[in-house]
């Protein structure tokens, strides 16, 4: 049999057939018997055909995989690598790349359930909380990513960006099984480092995720103390006697106030104001309270800032608001209204930057300190009923002040807070009404009349009706009125209001040339200032 040309082969799917061979055919067994004298050419042709067929199959597979990637919904969540697979150097590299790519496509529900398996989560009022040893902490979108890395996968399954993990926060918020409604008549408790005290019955329990609490005091409860007299805190007891001037009724009020500030949730429709003497211990008392709370549980808004638009955003996470240096200023209507609604348990809309506003439903405890009495414009008895005044009226001379007093008091914190819980229980028995101390309660603050009332008072006291030949320049009336307002500590009315009030009193507004060398000036005929 002669040598065959490679063109005599037809390759299909890796098999090869001879088109024209001078081979003999055995009729008995029906088989071709090619001449193997040049077997090398046949083997090479067969190999070539197999390679061509493999390339065709590989190309079909690539088209199918690209179609799958194109229609994959997860492509919207993760950036797809546009590198052509034809550029891969080997099939092993292609497989490695596929495995690496698949690791990025992690279903949202699996991520959420994996996190829930390792963490105790709650969704309260549309926000996600995470139980960390003693209480539930509020989580942000970035914090939930940190938590996932810590508890589930430190490499975030090889994700190329964090978009899916920020979406995880919103996904968890929709999990019905995690949603928790705060009970309407929640038991009063006090959260300590070593457990939770349920105030009413004095029952002390270990921390547990089933107790949904949102803060923890930086102190321990002493279970061995069975009465307030047994608590061993001599430095703080002496301090309380000094600031109360030795009066038992004032000292009891201070202990009740401290007890109330420590317990959760807030129940009373009031807030505290400490005042008004300088160097009287206000800062020491207030700083002690502030150090008992974790940083995220505290806001430090002044009364003026309560009336702002975005300042109150810090109240959303706070359990207590403490401001220990209020300036001398009158509270505006917005601040007064917001403080009344929060302490009364009414919903308050809190504006947030670059986010939707959120409604604050719960009460927050407020502690303020000032060297000046509270002042509001107009009469508002309801507002002053909310004030519980804590008198700090005895200034301590410089040579008698102890620079280490705060440190000494802090060392006694466990006994102090234990003693304060007994007074909190007593206040609860009084249905959150502090015993009245008439001479102390009269110092709550000052209710200022509206500015228009002071203007009318000025006109009645300092202006007199006369004949219309008498003229009083506006500048003279204005200077006299502004001096009166400064004396009373009120803001003057606008010029338009002043003019209308004097005209109503009987003056005629017009101009007059006081002498020939000057221009005419505005003033009132028929009015003169009393000496």
- The outline comes out as globular
The structure class reads alpha/beta
Question: What about the largest sheet?
Answer: 5 strands, parallel
What's the number of extended β-strand segments? 25
Strand order within the widest sheet? 12-13-17-11-19
Percentage of β-strand residues = 15-25%
How many H/I helices?
16
Task: Quote the distance from N terminus to C terminus.
Answer: 146 Å
Proportion of residues in helical segments:
25-40%
Rg over alpha carbons: 42 Å
Mean pLDDT: 81
Multimer state: single chain
Structure notes:
The protein has 531 residues and is of the alpha/beta class. Helices cover 37% and strands 19% of the residues. It is built from 16 helices and 25 strands. The strands form 9 sheets. A 5-stranded parallel sheet has the order 12-13-17-11-19. It has a 3-stranded antiparallel sheet with strand order 5-6-7. A hairpin with a 2-residue loop joins strand 1 (9-12) and strand 2. The chain is globular, with a radius of gyration of 42 Å. It starts with 8 loop residues before the first strand and ends with a strand. 24% of the residues are buried. Mean pLDDT is 81; it is low at 1-44, 63-89 and 95-104.
Quick overview of this protein structure:
With 531 residues, the protein is an alpha/beta fold.
Could you name the key traits of this structure?
531 residues; alpha/beta; 5-stranded parallel sheet; 3-stranded antiparallel sheet; globular; disordered N terminus
